[in-house]
């Protein structure tokens, strides 16, 4: 899949750690947001039913029973029911109500026990973007070949005029987008020369934030404070950044597009993450990394969820690398997770549930990226080592040398103790001149411990044995002794 898919931040990281993903394919999973039956979705569903025809009182009460904290019963009067519907609609569409002067009595029309909304202008302004926008080829048979479809409210987050897109394996160029005709495209097979990447230039203006009063809406994760609540914000899109590679922002091309309709949301589900004692650079880096992780974990919905923080002009960021934002409530040391859709898609609750895992992915990626930036030394290349590492290495070398000396000394002592006496050389063959002469008075060892004198010849030639025989006492045999005794 990585071969044909467009580039993204975690692609090289996943390729380098392929062994991890072969063992565990869900090490970085793709999440599918759950359908959330929120109050906003219930109100939008009720508006669509009332605008399409008549709805009974029982059916309206059946829809309203899923809203928590709403005090209304079957015995309520018609005026109470109409007032309740107006309060809910005004909470999420107050700008449209103010524009068309909608009140408690004029919003819902009543006929006996049936209710409806007949103000078509208000309906088009409030939920007109929920209709389907088809991708149509501009040719001689206009609006006959439908390629794809999206909600009109979701088109501008994904595509803008002038961009090239691929639908069904074919290359198209977006010509224009309109509420009547949808997304009009033309074939652009002749324009293929390389893949193009886009980053939208968006600006978010967050006006207010209110923490939800439900249990568990505020949590802590170490020093990080996580709050789930409601906020109103506006979105303005100036254009997009065109790149030949997704990460090559230095050689990007900026395109501005006029008259892109803005989007305004009231009381949208928002996740607020407070990072105490952090600088603006750290918060901006976390937002950039979270947005890139969303492209992998939410491949089908990454255009509708984003992380933003207040970015000052002193940052001098490259345009397009992060969405800019302004917070009117003065909370500068926090990050907002926003859902850029008229509907509650369930992305906020999914991000909140998996936020710890996202931080773990970011931490592991930064460690890998830091190691990847280290230079690879070559045989003919000298790499400078930081002084701190040199000092540490010197201390290790000195310690190892001192240990080595101690070992050598002990080994020397061991060898001294066990040192063997050298073996005697083999006796050389003595020449006749070197042989000892008789009578030289040398001694030789016998078989015992005592030494015997070697007899030497005298001047007359008599040997010492003769002299010793003369001087020695004569020993008689037993037979001679017996004869003498007789």
Mind sketching the topology for me?
Layout (H helix, E strand, L loop, with lengths): L9 H7 L1 H6 L15 H14 L2 E2 H8 L13 H15 L1 H6 L9 E3 L2 E3 L3 H8 L4 E6 L8 E6 H7 L5 E4 L2 E9 L3 E6 L9 E15 L6 E4 L2 E20 L9 E4 L6 E12 L5 H18 L7 E4 L15 E4 L6 E6 L7 H7 L1 H18 L14 H31 L25 E3 L5 E3 L10 H8 L6 H8 L1
Helix pairs in contact: 3-5, 9-11
Give a structural overview:
By secondary structure, the chain is an alpha+beta fold. 33% of the residues lie in helices and 23% in strands. It contains 14 helices and 18 strands. The protein has helices at residues 10-16, 18-23, 39-52, 57-64, 78-92, 94-99, 120-127, 152-158, 280-297, 347-353, 355-372, 387-417, 464-471, 478-485; strands at residues 55-56, 109-111, 114-116, 132-137, 146-151, 164-167, 170-178, 182-187, 197-211, 218-221, 224-243, 253-256, 263-274, 305-308, 324-327, 334-339, 443-445, 451-453. The radius of gyration is 49 Å and the shape is globular. The model is unreliable at 439-454 and 463-472 (pLDDT under 50).
Number of helices, counting only DSSP H or I runs of 4 residues or more: 14
Q: List low-confidence stretches.
A: 439-454, 463-472
What kind of sheet is the major sheet?
8 strands, mixed
Global structural class: alpha+beta
- How many strand units? 18
Mean pLDDT score, rounded? Answer: 80
Rg is 49 Å
- Name the shape in a single word: globular
The amount of helix comes to: 25-40%
Measured between the Cα atoms of the first and last residue, the distance is 137 Å
Which percent range describes the beta-strand content?
15-25%
